[in-house]
Each structure stands twice: as structure tokens, then as C-alpha cells.
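Lab intake sheet, docking and co-folding queue.

SAMPLE TYPE: protein with bound small molecule
LIGAND NAME: LRBWVUCK
LIGAND FORMAT: SMILES
REQUESTED OUTPUT: full 3D complex as C-alpha cells
PRIORITY: normal
SUBMITTED BY: R.K., bench team

The fields below were copied directly from the construct record.
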Amino acid sequence: MTTMAQVICGLARRWCFGALGSPLQVPCLQALPLHLGRTATRASQRDLENAVHQVKLWKKDPGNEVKLKLYALYKQATEGPCNLPKPGMMDLVNKAKWDAWSALGSLPKETARENYVDLVSSLSAASEPPSPAKPAADGEQAGGDLVVTSENHITTITFNRPAKKNAITTQMYQDIMLALQAASKDDSVLTVLTGNGEYYCSGNDLTNFTDIPPEGPEEKARTNAILLREFVDCFIDFPKPLVAVVNGPAVGISVTLLGLFDLVYASDRATFHTPFGPLGLSPEGCSSYTFPKMMGPSKAAEMLIFGRKLTAQEACAQGLVTEVFPDSTFQKEVWTRLRAYTKLPPNAVRTSREVMRSKGRERLHAVNAEECGALQQRWLSEECTSAVVRFLSRRGKL
Ligand SMILES: CCCC/C=C\CC(=O)SCCNC(=O)CCNC(=O)[C@H](O)C(C)(C)COP(=O)(O)OP(=O)(O)OC[C@H]1O[C@@H](n2cnc3c(N)ncnc32)[C@H](O)[C@@H]1OP(=O)(O)O
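RESULT FIELD (auto-filled):
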């Protein structure tokens, strides 16, 4: 049985772009701009580690050709010449990796290390510096994958990866936590989450699973569980009303979290989908507790276990959505209403929010911990890894 870790571990663990592009695009490796003749300074092990770290910071995918070359050089530098058996013809990804590594022949480890460092250095010089999103303060603060604005006593956190249907990357989880921390202290009355473009959010970015650390997939599952727990804790503990302006389809964690929101306004184009069954996953975001409480155990099971996708109207009937608006007037109606709410006495709003949330808070933390523990196991399961590999390979990401 092939696990995702076996498929991608060696390839992806050292760079954050995840797995290799389609093997059908495997390049002519000789065409890469290597500085094979460099002798003035030898690259040390530390240089190699720094270069690996540098690759993790790249925002732009360097493409299959470069990723293959980096993989091959890294393997040669750390393990020496390839002596693995050649993978079968149908094992496209592993064959591409094997070909790249084998093509380096008996290149000495030191030279491979030097070539890796040189390649990263030349590519880093040509690429833009990373621009992490900043938390909100006054006015617009952040660009990139997350945009945070503060205006008229409303802090708005916008998922801004429309080309990826606003899938949430590891960096975005961190940035959302920072933005919530800042919003909890700013002068806003309401905090809004919304999406830019056609989607509200397509959930966890499934390529997050491919960035496997050298310690292996267990370590990845452990750190993911910590990240998820901290992330959901921020929503549980957030002291002000949280509003979701669901502009389009919502998937996965962007749906489950809605049980922790105070208001959920949806366009009639929005859908609500938690495909945990097909993905070999289990619920998160406290939905195993909030959904049955809000819609009854059977409707919750249909969504969370069997992955039934709800329309906005259905989600409203189940209590997950507060109100549905025609898409044509959605933005205008919702923002007008939210601006009116900000005129309410802020201390009264905050006090009401606190008395409503305080009773269930401890329970929510316990549920969050339990869900993250279950997911830590799920992420390592064959059911989950195969589902993720299926998604990534269909989209040419493996
Ligand atoms: C700390 C860890 C916490 C983990 C907790 C959360 C669990 C979850 O959230 S589980 C849910 C995960 N999400 C999904 O399973 C959705 C996956 N995506 C899809 O099914 C489809 O992309 C979608 C139905 C959203 C849209 O389909 P299409 O309209 O056909 O568009 P494309 O598939 O072509 O998508 C365009 C572009 O976006 C990329 N994309 C979309 N969603 C994701 C995603 N979740 N992760 C990574 N990438 C995603 C997709 O690959 C396409 O990319 P390109 O091929 O590069 O254009």
C-alpha cells in the first residue's frame, strides 16, 4: 500500500511548494544553469541547511524542472549516488525523481552540495522577497494571501487567494491568528471574515500536507494538530462578535468554524461542504459539538460524516446560516446592516457576547482538543493520504 508519505516524503519534505509537477513535464535536466566550476568557496553543511531554509521562503513555485533538480542535488549531497531500484513505468512520480537523481551519476557529495547552494542562490536573487501579511491596525494593513482592513469599527479579514479558491495555507493560519489577536484589541465592534472572488474559501490547502519535515510525517501530523488547535482556540476565545460574510462556496474548515461565529450572512450562490468522509478525515473547528447542537445529530451526521453539501437556503434552515441574500445585492445589504450594528453601544454588545459565549467555552476547548487528537491520527492514515494524493495528482501537483 502506498502512503502519501512514501510518495512524496523524499521529494517534498525539503521545500514548501509541496510535490512535484506532472511527471509528463519532466525536463531535460542538463538545461539547468549550474555553476559547476565554482572552487573559490566550498559550500558547508550549514550553507546547505541555509539554502534549504531559503527555498522554504520562496513565494513563487520555481517549476518542475528546478524542483526536480533541487531534489536530485539534495539527495546526492546527503545520501550520495542513487542506488535505489528503478521504479516501474507506471510509478510516474517516483520514476521522475529516480531519473533526476540517477542522472547525477557519481557526482561527489560536496559538489552536489555546492551546486544545490549555487542554484538556490541564483534563483533567490532573481525572485521577490517574501511579504508576510501583517495584522490589522488602522486602515488597510496587509496584502498577499490575507488582506486585513479596519474601517468604520469593522475589522475585515479577507481570504485573498482567488486563483486557489482561497484555500488556507499554513502561513495564512498563522496570519489569521495574528489578525484576530490585533482585532481583539483594536477599536472595532465587529470582526468579519470573507473571501475575495468566486469562493468564500475551499478549506485547508491540501498541499499543506506535502511539506513533510525531515523528521517524517508523524512530526508533520503533530505540528499540524498543534497549529489547528491554536487556530481554533483563537476563535473560541475571541472576545467580540464574529461575522462571516460568505460570498460563495465554502469548504472544510471554513464551514466547520462557522459554528463559532455569531452571524453568518450568505449569498444565495454559497454552498456549504465538509467532505471529511471522502478525504478520510474527521470534523474539526468544534463542529462535532456545534453542528449537532444547532441542527440535530442526524443532519449534522449527513454533513460531517457523509459529506452532504448544503445550499445556502438549506444551511439557513439548519441554523448554520443566519440569513441568505440574493447575490446581486449581497454586498450592499450585508455591509449596510453591519454598519448599522456598529452604532450599537459597544460595551453592551461585548457584554452580551461574553455572557453568551462564557458558558460553553470550556466545553469548546475540550472538543477542540479531542478533534485535533483524532485528526492527528487521520492525517497519517492510508485513507487520508490516498485521498490527498488523488486530489493533488488530478491537478498535476504530483
Ligand atoms: C492545520 C491543518 C488543518 C486542517 C483542517 C481542515 C480540513 C479541511 O479544510 S478539509 C477540506 C479541504 N478542501 C478540499 O477538499 C477542497 C479541495 N478542492 C476542490 O475540491 C476543488 O478545487 C473545488 C471544488 C474547491 C473547486 O473546484 P474547481 O472549480 O474545479 O476548481 P479547481 O479544482 O480547478 O481549483 C482551482 C485551483 O485551486 C486549487 N485549489 C482549490 N482548492 C484547493 C485546496 N483546498 N487546496 C489546494 N489547492 C486548492 C486547485 O488545485 C486549482 O489549482 P491549479 O490547478 O494550480 O489552478
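REVIEWER NOTE: Strands lie at 146-151, 154-159, 190-195, 242-246, 250-251, 263-267, 271-273, 310-311, 323-325.
SIGN-OFF: pending second check by T.M.
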